[in-house]
Please model this.
Amino acid sequence: MSILSDRIKQLGESETLAMAKRARALQAEGHNVISLSTGEPDFFTPDHIKEAAKNAIQNNKSYYTPVAGIPELRQAISYKLKRDNNLNYSPEQIVVSTGAKHTIMNLILSVINPGDEVIIPTPYWVSYAEMVRFAGGIPKFVKGKFENEYKITAEELESNISAHTKLLLFSSPCNPTGAIYSKEELLELSKILQKHPKILICSDEIYEHINFVGNHFSIAQIESMYERTIVVNGVSKGFAMTGWRIGYLAGPKEIALACEKLQGQFTSGANSIAQYASVAAMGDNLEPTYAMRNKFKERRDLVIELSKDIIGFKTFIPKGAFYLYPDISYYFGKANGETTIHDAFDLSMYLLNDAHVATVSGSAFGSEECIRLSFATSSELLIEAFRRMKISLDKLN
Ligand SMILES: Cc1ncc(COP(=O)(O)O)c(C=O)c1O
Model:
């Protein structure tokens, strides 16, 4: 008998982390690896947020916090949701957790029964499918088309709804594609959802502030969707605070209470110092966030220019987040010596081994024909990475 549970054996490993691990191993062998694989801003946490954390330490904010978050933070999130999204959520509808990843897991465990179907527009963020399976749910992958920047249409949504559908789970801006659902597109989806009042929506808006095209729009802003939407957000991406581990959700009180109950048994309240820091992040000083977003936009423009030189990168211009997600199926069947490229994983490994550039295979996100390149790194490194990739890719024939 195995010492491990069936549950843990069935859980897939996060492929983004696995690739980063491999890149570190090559680096340890002395290779100069450029990592375009990670999903975090390369900026520092803004000073006013760090000050708030220092004050919290000085003021001995070192005790357990209320499970759902300190009142100041739940209030600040409520304020932010009104200010930025014109959404009304009372603090009781908000639960703070140890990162948005934890938030989403809390939500899934709170609403999914074995056999429930969860519609996941594909490509999707790595952890969604495993989280759903872990809860006994069935991920229902709905592939978006390249022509529509991989976003799903109302028809595609409708034809995948069944009597078992419990949840629609998506991110906008999207990791890995950088696509953003417009207000009009969300209205179209909502017309279908109106016909199915029991379906919940998890709107993952963690990249809200990394948006190159203008105002963020949340599906929760559509009146008929508000009651059954759970908005997920956090400080990781917009405030360069990945390591602080603060995420949150806002939604119906019943769901917030369920997540609080679950969290109360598993982890308790999130880190107290990070919560006090996050209160400052929810305040009105968004200058550092905007400066960071502008930098990401410059780099986005740079990688679009650089990718024009790479014949096998078929891509659209990402409107948000910090990823380029080219279709690289042009290289399938091509070889360099012993190495033949059969799929995105092969290409990603080839780029790591030959160009010493770490990327992530689209297979991690549910699409076999793409790779993900993160531009959360300096322009100099991006230029060098593209130079190396072009040399390696040109050797494939
Ligand atoms: C789409 C999406 N959602 C959620 C998360 C989780 O963010 P965190 O747990 O750092 O708050 C990430 C992080 O990569 C993400 O890309």
Notes: The two ends are 48 Å apart (CA to CA). Residues 6-44+287-394 form a domain with the Aspartate Aminotransferase, domain 1 fold (CATH 3.90.1150.10).
